[in-house]
Amino acid sequence: MKMTLKISRPMALSILVGLASISTAKAQDQFLLAWNATGYTYNSKGELVATNVNAQTFIKKVAADNGLDPKDLAFVYRVENLDTVVAFKTNGQFVADIYQMEDTFTAITNAPNTMDARQSLLTIENATNFDGALVTIGGIFGIEDFHHDAEGNITSYSYHGNFNYSLPGETVVFSGTFSTGARLKLAPGDEVESNPPKSKKAAK
Fold this sequence. Notes:
Oligomer: single chain
Strand content: over 45%
Number of domains: 1
Number of helices: 1
């Protein structure tokens, strides 16, 4: 399985990713994300081979391809964006896209508006043309538990579930689970990215 994660917007595990420009905008609610996947494929002998992927897989690849220290990075879920990204631990600043869930989804919410069941298509950005188009790679299902204060700010949040996907051009099928943890706050002035630069096609 080949991975190229140079300075570009698309993302990980044969996903091309990169650094985006940062601008002041509305703050993000983002939470550390545990991601545990097992990939299944067959080797040249016809034997079933399993490989493991987790949050550190994405973090280390983004760090290696962009000259960063993996110890400075975290893998997070951004609630408003319905996506997963690598961000800086110190200030929560965006570094690289990984997977998105905002393109097509169904969410069934309870009457108090404190919990929902969400089924989403799992997507990546087009890693061939880098045109920003989303490519469906699989699906993800999760339960969200959230509470807000009187001003509408999230005071507590959890999201957990399972997923399955296969990446374009790869002969590996992934299946696994995810769950959110502690909040990763954005430092004042270090908000969400705006109009990140289009990337050049990177060699695989």
